[in-house]
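Q: Here's a chain of 433 amino acids. Please give me its 3D structure as C-alpha cells.
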Amino acid sequence: MHFTRNCLIVFIIVNLIQFGLFISKIGAEEPMLKGTALYQDVAKYAEFAPHMTATTGDVKTSQWIADELKEIGLHVNLQKWQLRQFFIKECRFLMDGQNIEAFPFWYPKPTGTEPIIAPLAVMTKNTKPGELKGHIAFVSSKDAGAAIYYKGVNNWAKQAADAGAVGLVVTVVNLSGQLAAINARSPFHQTPLPLPSVIIAMKDQKVVMSAAKAGRTASLLIDGKDNQAAEAFNIIGTLNRGNKWIVVTTPTSGWFTCAGERGPGVALFLALARWASQSKSRFSYLFMGNSGHELDNIGAHHTLDKYAPPVKDVACWIHLGASIATRAWKRTEKGFKPLPKVNDRLNLVGTEDLMPILNAAFENVPGYKPRSKGRIAGELRHFITAGYRAFGFFGGHAFFHTRHDTPATTGPEFLEPVGGALIKSIQEVEEGQ
C-alpha cells in the first residue's frame, strides 16, 4: 500500500512536470503571444502609415519599436543612416481629361511641375524601337507579369528609354484589382530611372489599353522633392546572456499602410522580444528591425555589416518577413469578402538542417509548409546567402502593396498559431545546442 501510494505521487508529479513543460513549449500561457495582443500591435503599426522609408511615419515607427524594447529591459540602439529619397508632391496621369490613379516606380525620374504630353503606344517584348520614339509607352499586366514584383521595372524602363520613349506606364497585376506599388531594384533604388515611369491599377487597364492602341494623347506628371541626405533608422535590441545567439529580424518600412504585409512581422518581433526578456534562456538574443525594405532591402545591409554576430555564434536566425498569417478573400459582386482562413500565398523557408524542427513546430499551423528549396524573397535571402542557419517568412495577399492593406487583412485567430510555433521552434533550437 505504501509502495502504491509513493508510485502514485511520483506519477502525478512527473505528469505535472510534463504538462508544465508542454504548456511552456507551446507558449499558450504567455499573454504576449495571444492573438488579441498580437493584433493590437498590428493595429498600432498601421496607425503610423504611410511607412515609406525616411517619412515621418517610418521614423515614428522605428521610435515606437525602440521604446517598446527599452520598456522590457533590452539594450537598444537606434541606428541612423542616410539615403537618397524622393518625397512626392503630385503624381498624375491624365488621358482625355480623365484622371487615372497612378503612383511612381522607384526611384522616380521627376517631370517637374510641367507634365509630359505625348501620344500613348503599346509596348510589348516584340515592339520595334521606332514605334516608341516620342511616345509614352504602355505595358500591360500580361506583358509585365508577376515577375515585376521581384525583378522590378528596370528592364522595361531601360528598353523604353533606349527606344526613345518619353514616359512609361505599366499595369501591375494584383488580386484585388487595386494599384499595387513595386519595390525598387538596384541600381534604381538610389538613382532615378531613365525616364518618368508610373504604375496603374488593373481596374484601369482596359481603358488605358484602348487609348494606347488608338495612339491617343496622355499627360504624365511626377513632381516632388529629391532629398540626397534623408534619414532613416534601424532598431537594434540585445539581451546578452551567453556565447550563442538567436537573431530575430523584421522589415519595418513599406509603401502605404502595410498592415498585413509588415504588421504581423512587427507584432511577432515585439512578442518574441517580450517572451525572451522573461525567459530563463542561456542564449543571447539580438532583435533588429530594418527600414529601407522597399528600396532593395537597403537598410538590412547596415545592420548585417555592423551588428550581426559571426555565423559560428548564431544558433538560429529568424526573419519575420511579408504577409505572415494574412487572410484569404473571396471576390463577390459587392466587392471582396473576408474568409475565415489564411491565404494560399504564404511561404516558410529555412536551411535544410532546420526542417525537422520546423516541420514539427508548424505541423498544425494553417498555410505554412516548411521548405528548404526554391525561391527565397526579401532580406531572408541575404541572411541565408551569408551562411547563417536561418528560417523566415515571405508572401503576398489580395491587398499586398496597395493602399487597402489594412488590419482587416489579418486577425487574432491567424496570428496566435504562428506565435506558438515560433516559440516551439526556438525552444527546440536551444535544446539542440
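Q: Can you summarize the key feature?
A: DSSP finds twelve helices and 15 strands in the chain.
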